[in-house]
Specification:
The strands form 2 sheets. A 3-stranded antiparallel sheet has the order 2-1-6, with no helix packed on it. The chain contains 1 helix and 6 strands, in the order αββββββ. It has a single domain, classed as SH3 type barrels (Roll). By secondary structure, the chain is mainly β. A hairpin with a 3-residue loop joins strand 3 and strand 4. It is globular.
Amino acid sequence: MITPHQIRGLLESRPFKPFRICLSDGAHYDITNHDMAFVGRNTVEIGLNLDADGFAEYFARCSILHITRLEDLPEPAAV
């Protein structure tokens, strides 16, 4: 079972590493920076469709009970 502490730990890690939140209905959300998500006791609010300044157009509210796994996203290759 995923806990709010696990999600917050990923968001607060330094350096930040992008990760994916996978839900029981098959949906997933890629968290590409630590400011995209806000963790509550039972839900995670995820900012979506970020503009160039990092402002979200809208939010998805995900019940932590429906999060099935957290996956690391591949980091971009250094050029």
